[in-house]
Amino acid sequence: MTEATQAKDAGGHAWYGALLERCVGLPPAPTAVVHPCDALSICAAVEAARLNLIEPILVGPAAKVQAAASAASVDISGFRLVDTPHSHAAAARAVELVRCGEATLLMKGALHTDELMHEVMDEKTGLRTERRISHVYLMDLPGHDRPLLVTDAAINIQPSLEDKRDIVQNAIDLAQVMRIDVPKVAILSAVETVNPKLQSTIDAAALCKMADRRQIVGGVLDGPLAFDNAISEEAARDKGIDSAVAGHADILVAPDLVSGNILAKMLTFVAHADAAGVVLGARCPIILTSRADAERTRIASCAVAVLMARQSVLGVKPPAA
Q1: What domains sit in the chain, N to C, each tagged with a CATH number?
Q2: Nearest to 89 by CA among 64, 66, 71, 68
Q3: Are 277 and 288 in contact (CB under 8 A)?
Q4: Which of 77, 69, 71 is nearest to 42 (CA)?
Q5: What is the pTM of this model?
Q6: CB neighbours of 292 closer than 8 A, spacing ≥ 6?
Q7: Strand pairing category for 286-287 and 274-280
Q8: Which of 64, 96, 116, 135 could form a disulfide bond with 154, CB atoms 3.0-4.6 angstroms apart?
Q9: Non-local CB neighbours of 21 within 8 Å, separated by 6+ positions
Q10: Cβ contact 111:61 at 8 Å
């Protein structure tokens, strides 16, 4: 019995099991795990390695990493351990490992997101590309028949229209790796009509026209749309919205980080969604999780990043489960 089948048999959401199933048979991705100095981060790395998702390279103060492993009763003797004096140095060294080709993924450990992303974003030594870096959550919602992608809930505080173009394109690229070939993208606001006093509605309209002109490719966009008519066919019909996206959205694009973060956490903690989070637009996918995330979320995030890395390296989509 595979790990994915066991996950489903144990009562897990089907999407989580299917996600792990798609990684079966793929080589583990060398992954720089940044400052894994607490039980949550070290256990997630060990479990992801046990599932053959990643080959961890533990980067951080050796004594602290070993102490965390001992406290968590996990064996890290088989993993490479790169000693650094502190978390800032760990972030810099992990980024260097990616730049020199020794790692194909980054995984956040017990350090602040800002500290890791500062090194990723460095113009000279970081992992920037021509794309704006952004974060995407993949949500498996009970009662919802398909995964829902939410962006950006972690990186871009007040994104410009140009930033949002890249945020949308990153999410479309991820959706396609997740076998949503032509994702439906809802650009969210508080209302469904363009209001000059509400910048998010103007940005939404502009993004839709950018898609018409192929400045954004691979998805079908509509907006502005409120959350209810983005995901509810009935709500869209009641408001008289005639749209291929309304009621059928695969991707929800928040107007700013605050609203995106609230939406993602509401879906996780109130609607009991399983979530996987990944940062895109850098030279490699970045597994970016919160201290509040369950191990299940961390493992799902690893699986998503592995599939994205395989797509990037080979230029082909991984085989379907």
Answers
A1: 1-128+282-321 (3.40.50.10950), 131-276 (3.40.718.10)
A2: 64
A3: yes
A4: 69
A5: 0.89
A6: none
A7: antiparallel
A8: 135
A9: 2, 4, 5, 321
A10: no
